[in-house]
Amino acid sequence: MADIVSPQKRSQMMAGIKAKNTKPELLIRSGLHACGYRFRLHRTDLPGRPDIVLPRYRAAIFVNGCFWHRHNCHLFKLPRSRREFWTAKLDANAERDQIAICALRSKDWRVAVIWECATRGKNRLHVDETIRSIGEWLNTNDQYLEIEGETLDRQS
To answer: What average pLDDT does the segment 33-53 reach?
Structure first.
């Protein structure tokens, strides 16, 4: 199936997608800061370059876009054109995420993954609920937290 926009327009559209300081990330950062949590951003010395790092809690938080990290929710839809390309690209992103999480956990870092669908879309959570869940997790010994729209999964 042919693309409905020109290659130049598609390139311009793709270049406009941010990797850092996305709306979901800014929302989580703002909420954490308002609750008194202090953090560092995009630390390049840690595997996966986490979006938010709370050194005091030895916690790394990734705020993942549902499309780019291939989350199984209503915000993800595999493009109909160039399916092989997109499947390979998104699979590589998901594999890289798992490698980064394993590397962080092997260095005794706690990891949280906050999915975009928790902050927007039809199944989004209230931002206060999301921040409260992160705060509760930070004050436990749980090693992993995953927050997605309408569901919460906490593992040790």
So the answer is: 96
How many angstroms separate the CA atoms of 24 and 30, rounded?
Answer: 10
Q: What is the pLDDT of residues 70-106, one digit of tens each?
A: 998 988 888 888 899 999 999 999 999 999 999 999 9
Domain ranges in the chain are: 26-155
> Which pTM value belongs to this model?
0.84
**Host H or E run for residue 111:** strand 110-115
Smallest Cα–Cα separation from 147: which of 108, 117, 105, 109?
117
Local structure of residue 126 (DSSP, 8 states): P
Q: What is the CATH number of domain 26-155?
A: 3.40.960.10
